[in-house]
C-alpha cells in the first residue's frame, strides 16, 4: 500500500483579491498574479471578506483607523475605526476579524494573503485616518488578530514570500 500524499496547506485570502465585489466601493481588487491563480486552481484558497462578514454593506463609505493608530490598538480598545462620514464601525471590523480567525482555526489555516492598505487586511500599511490617501506603517484589524494568533500574513505584493512560507510548512519546517 502506498502512503496517502500529505495534505496540502491552504491559505486564507481576501475575497476582493479574487475579484469578489466586496470592497467599500462595490468592486473587487482582482490580483492577476500567477501564484495566486495557481493556488486558486489547486483549491488552496479560502476566500473571506472580514468587513462584509462583520456586517458592513457593499458599497459602503470608506473607513480608516483613527489617525496614527493601527489594528493592534483597535483590538485593545485604544482606537476606533471610523467611516468617512464619521460613523464608528469598529464593532464590525472586530467582529469580521474574529470570524476570519475562527475560520482559519476551523480549517487549520496557517497562512493568509490579505489586501494591503485595508483597515481590515493591510499587513504592512494602512491609511492614516485622515481620508487623504496617505498611508502609514501598520496592520489592519484582521491582519493584526491573525498574526497575534500565529498565522503568517502576507499582502498581495508578497506572494513569493508566501510561497516560500508555504513550501516550508509543507516540508515540515514550519
Descriptive notes:
By secondary structure, this protein is α/β, with parallel strands linked by helices. The protein contains 6 helices and 8 strands; from the N terminus they run βαβαβαβαβββαβα. The strands form 3 sheets. The chain has a 4-stranded parallel sheet with strand order 2-1-5-8, sandwiched between helices. The longest helix has 18 residues.
Give me a quick take on this structure.
With 174 residues, the protein is of the alpha/beta class. It has 6 helices and 8 strands, in the order E-H-E-H-E-H-E-H-E-E-E-H-E-H.
Strand elements, count: 8
Ranges where pLDDT stays below 50 over 5 or more residues in a row are none
Query: How much helicity do the residues have?
Result: 25-40%
Sheet of most strands? 4 strands, parallel
The DSSP helix count reads 6
Q: What would the principal axes of the Cα set say about the shape? A: globular
Order of helices and strands: EHEHEHEHEEEHEH
C-alpha Rg (nearest Å): 16 Å
The fraction of residues in strands falls at 15-25%
Q: Largest beta sheet: what is the strand line-up? A: 2-1-5-8
Class derived from helix and strand content: alpha/beta
Quaternary structure state of the chains depicted: single chain
The overall average pLDDT, rounded, is 95
Query: What is the distance, rounded to the nearest whole angstrom, between the alpha carbons of the first and last residues?
Result: 28 Å
Amino acid at each position: 500500500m502506498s502512503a496517502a500524499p500529505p495534505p496540502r496547506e491552504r491559505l486564507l485570502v481576501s475575497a476582493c483579491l479574487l475579484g469578489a465585489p466586496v470592497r467599500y466601493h462595490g468592486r473587487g481588487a482582482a490580483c492577476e498574479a500567477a501564484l495566486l491563480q495557481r493556488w486558486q486552481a489547486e483549491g488552496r484558497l479560502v476566500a473571506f471578506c472580514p468587513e462584509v462578514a462583520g456586517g458592513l454593506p457593499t458599497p459602503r463609505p470608506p473607513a480608516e483607523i483613527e489617525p496614527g493608530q493601527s489594528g493592534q490598538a483597535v483590538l485593545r480598545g485604544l482606537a476606533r475605526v471610523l467611516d468617512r462620514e464619521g460613523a464608528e464601525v469598529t464593532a464590525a471590523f472586530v467582529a469580521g476579524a474574529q470570524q476570519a480567525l475562527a475560520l482559519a482555526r476551523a480549517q487549520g489555516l496557517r497562512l493568509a494573503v490579505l489586501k494591503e492598505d485595508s483597515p481590515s487586511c493591510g499587513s504592512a500599511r494602512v491609511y492614516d485616518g485622515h481620508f487623504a490617501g496617505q498611508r502609514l506603517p501598520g496592520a489592519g484589524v484582521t491582519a493584526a488578530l491573525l498574526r497575534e494568533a500565529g498565522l503568517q500574513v502576507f499582502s498581495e505584493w508578497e506572494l513569493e514570500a508566501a510561497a516560500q512560507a508555504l513550501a516550508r510548512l509543507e516540508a515540515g519546517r514550519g
